[in-house]
């Protein structure tokens, strides 16, 4: 049996061109798939980092609320405050509270035995997640009515 021969010379030059074009398309589609996978992995990583940062910030805000709800936190501003029920891996540090200003409370006389003052305090709480390395510091000003001389 004789092999099939093409009498048209342009057909000989086109043999294998479909294979070549399909290989190029296959390589291009593979590169697009790999790039898409890398982009989605990067986006997942970014979302995870944002969630970790928000989680740590909300725990720091919880620390602020705990400090503000305790009057003894301002009567002894250097007293260490410990927080309970923290998520695993998160540590919270409450800095010493700082009294920034004190003014006599309105409606009271200085000659009264008990003369309260409206004091302005600054509270700082730092939270850190040991798993992700995320950290957050939350500062808040607090106005507290206390006995005169409490702001030192």
Describe how the helices and strands are arranged.
Blueprint: H1 9-14, H2 17-68, H3 72-75, E1 90-94, E2 98-104, E3 116-129, E4 135-147
What does this structure look like?
By secondary structure, the protein is of the alpha+beta class. It has one domain (16-147). 41% of the residues lie in helices and 26% in strands. The protein contains 3 helices and 4 strands. It has helices at 9-14, 17-68, 72-75; strands at residues 90-94, 98-104, 116-129, 135-147. Strands 1, 2, 3 and 4 form a 4-stranded antiparallel sheet that branches. A hairpin with a 5-residue loop joins strand 3 (116-129) and strand 4 (135-147). The longest helix is centred in the N-terminal third of the chain and has 52 residues, at 17-68. The protein is rod-shaped and about 120 Å long. The termini are far apart. The mean pLDDT is 85.
